[in-house]
Write a structure and sequence with these properties.
204 residues, mainly alpha, 8 helices, 0% strand
Length: 204
Amino acid sequence: MATVEKIRKIKADARKRSEQRVENRNELASHAIVALSELGYARTGMRDIATVSGRSVGALTYYFDDKIDLISYCVRLYKEEFVRHIDAAMTGHSSSDEVKEAVTSAFAWAIEHDANKHRLWYDIRSQALFEEAFRPVVREIEENLVAMVVRFLTELGRPADNGQTMYFLLDGLFRVHLQAALEGDTQAPEKLKIAAYAVLDSME
């Protein structure tokens, strides 16, 4: 085999191993989120996550340095999915009213269907006040969320320079209604929509 072909094969094999590693990490993270979102950061150990995922603790530590590394990966993964969900809700509309309805409905859907996952985000964000290791991923996620809100404002034809302020307002509403949903308020998703509309209308 020619040297060039050998190099190509080595690169292809390395790329395949890298892709497989990412797939394995994502699979483990998807199982870990189930345990973490139910029990929270403080009450979940690597052994609990291993039990839920059907893997050994050794397998987890092969792919992740420790619990903080695993949780950071999990939170980043599902918050990226959340941002994609909201971005998808913004597209294909002919008016700002349609955009507003679609996005606020997507927020409500997230509370109704993914409350436990979002609860984990607020748990980790609070932990970052005490645990320095969580601060980089929390900062990264919040920057992505602010950027998402800026895109939302742009789709509404609003000035994007108050994107951070609007993020804080919408995030506050989301957290309050998330907690209400977790406490059993079945109307929390619809109440979130109404509150989000009020905030958006007040800043027109």
